[in-house]
Amino acid sequence: MKIFVSLMKDKNDIIYSLSISDIQTVAFQELDRELTGDEIEAIKDLIGEKINWYDSIFNSIIEKNIGN
How far is CA 32 from CA 12, 26, 39, in A? Predict the structure, then answer.
């Protein structure tokens, strides 16, 4: 239990994030160029709206057979 408590000290720790580099990697692979700053600004909120975080978390819990 001591390990669990130390891992859970800050419940606001970020588990997963995307960087500008991640966005540029996709842009270069798909468009053969990087995006401009304005283009990144135009899509960054859309990216967050398209990530189904609830299902990702729940499916990961099921995949690891946690709670059964």
Answer: 36, 9, 15
**Residue 56 token pair:** 């990702």
Using left for φ > 0, alpha for ψ between -120 and 50, and beta otherwise, residue 3 falls in alpha
Do residues 35 and 23 lie in contact, with contact meaning Cβ atoms separated by under 8 Å? yes
Domain boundaries, the chain: 17-63
Mean pLDDT by 10-residue block, N- to C-terminus, for the chain (68 residues)?
60 92 98 99 96 95 92
Q: Could you please report the per-residue DSSP string of 15-47?
A: -----HHHHHHHHHHHHSSPPPHHHHHHHHHHH
Token pair 């239990």 in the structure block, residue: 1
